[in-house]
Specification:
The protein has 218 residues and is of the alpha/beta class. It is 56% helix and 11% strand. The chain has one domain: 3-Layer(aba) Sandwich (Rossmann fold), CATH 3.40.50.300.
């Protein structure tokens, strides 16, 4: 492990089903990073959320925010190089979309935003964020392919609204955290990508080289 990787903290961002877990696993293997996976299997709200989104949206978002904050802080406190499968910043995307589509009450959203802002005072920013960009249609296709029962009723309208919020998110977060945006409509060679990302980071060229790098993998 080189000195430059000692405090490395990478977040992998993207739509539902984009391929975050696959890439996070590959990056962890190539770069010697501990992987923190998105809480799905043990999420006791998820099935209720998809069954009755409006009723369970606030409880689900608070649950996820708490779990993600716990992961985020553990990464910082342990001081070991790590990669997080979906960042804590993305939780706010889902909450905003739920509010704007009428699936979360305004007072609940205000409470959520206040809590997120208070938590953000205790967050250390990741070294970089990798955003895997897929269309709503591709997201839905991959969700169906992995056949999680709780995701069966997710509509294309829901995913389209989510995708719009992700575009706003990436434009904003890239002003504060180095962000690599990758078109993930077609799966790339994840092993090769992991090594290329490692190389870009070691050369301190995440932002400077992102365009050239995207052309290389295209």
């Amino acid at each position: 492990m080189t000195e430059r990787l000692d405090n490395l903290f990478i977040g992998v961002a993207g739509m539902i089903g984009a391929g975050k877990t696959t890439l996070a696993t590959a990056l962890g293997r190539h770069m010697g990073l501990e992987v923190y996976y998105e809480p799905v299997a043990d999420n006791e709200y998820l099935s209720d959320f998809y069954r009755d989104t409006a009723r369970y949206s606030f409880a689900t978002q608070i649950y996820l925010l708490n779990r993600r904050f716990q992961q985020h802080q553990e990464i910082i406190w342990r001081g070991v190089p790590a990669i997080q499968d979906r960042t804590i910043y993305e939780d706010a995307i889902f909450a905003k979309m739920l509010s704007e589509t009428g699936l979360m009450e305004p007072r609940d959203y205000r409470t959520y935003v206040d809590l997120f802002r208070h938590m953000s005072n205790f967050m250390c920013r990741p070294s970089a964020i990798i955003y895997l960009d897929v269309s709503p249609e591709r997201s839905q296709e991959r969700m169906r392919a992995r056949s999680r029962d709780v995701e069966a009723g997710v509509s294309i309208d829901y995913l389209a609204a989510l995708h719009r919020e992700y575009q706003v998110f990436v434009a904003d977060i890239s002003k504060r955290i180095p962000t690599i945006r990758v078109s993930w409509e077609q799966y790339r060679d994840v092993e090769e990508m992991a090594e290329m990302i490692r190389s870009e980071y070691m050369n301190a060229s995440f932002l400077r080289e992102v365009t050239r790098w995207e052309r290389r993998i295209g």
